[in-house]
Amino acid sequence: MPELPEVQTVVNDLIHAGLIGNTIRDAGVFWNKTIGNLYPNEFTAKITGQIITNIRRRAKYIIFDFESGMHLLIHLRMSGRLQLLPNSSRRDKHEHIILHLNDDRDVRFHDTRKFGRMTLTDNPSTILGKLGPEPLSDDFTITQFQKMLKTKNRQLKPLLLDQNFLAGLGNIYVDEALWKARLHPLKIASTLSSGKVKDLHQAIRNVLQQGIDNQGTSLGDGMSNFVSAERQRGNNAENLMVFRRTDKACPRCNTKIKRIVVGQRSTHICPKCQKY
Fold first, then answer.
1. For the chain, which terminal residue's Cβ has fewer other Cβ atoms within 10 angstroms, N or C?
2. β-strands 265-269, 95-101 pairing
């Protein structure tokens, strides 16, 4: 699933490609469930003529802001991609929503597993308002993080994956941040010392920013693997320290990386560096 760095990479691509200021002149809906809150004819009617004034990210959502006050919230889920293509390009069978722009380009929602969703709304806070703070925001301070953690008697890994607690983190970057902070994923959040809170805060921000700087993480060659809106693979895989490195040497202490399951999620740790 694309996480914060991958979603931010897509947003950066769309902005760089000059989508802001474009008008959506028409839309095609080829899988109704992708636009779960509207019927296809309603979605098409409401989005036609919308002028894009901004493209941004909140947590794992890509957001198109329109001049009318409407907003399009896009969640890629497991295998979703946004792709920019000429209007004349032949439609792939996995392209379930196509937004036709007034400059003869399309924004196409490609999703092999069909889990991704688009929500066209004039009140995005009904979805976005439930999310936790942005970990790269200046408002996300060590002091705030300490207050958030001290009341949580939950294991670190499931807690950090909870989008209502902290927005944007997924399996890759939680594993990487916990390794960097030398914390075991089963450790209870409220037991962290102030020093460890500082370490984890810094680790989270560092691994996310590194992911953005490297245009996201692409693993493998499958159809559901991450590619940017410009159809480029992310370059962050070579910087991963533990994620999907089972039985390889820990870059810090040379101990073999171990795979465990935490909250039904595959989890990668160094048994020596991340003692429980």
1. C
2. unpaired
The 3-state DSSP class for residue 47 equals helix
CB 104 within 8 A of CB 86: yes
What is the pTM assigned to this prediction?
0.95
Where are the chain's structural domains? 4-128, 142-269
Active-site pick, 2, 5, 135, 185: 2
Q: Is position 60 annotated as part of the catalytic site?
A: yes
Query: Of 46, 60, 157, 245, which residue is the catalytic one?
Result: 60
- 256 or 263, greater pLDDT: 256
Strand pairing category for 117-121 and 71-75: antiparallel
> Which residues neighbour 200 within 8 Å (Cβ) at sequence distance 6 or greater?
145, 156, 177, 178, 181, 183, 192
pLDDT over 70 for what percent of the chain?
Answer: 99
What is the CATH architecture of 142-269? Answer: Orthogonal Bundle (1.10)
Say yes or no: do domains 4-128 and 142-269 share a fold: no
Residue from 251, 265, 271, 272 carrying the catalytic annotation: 265
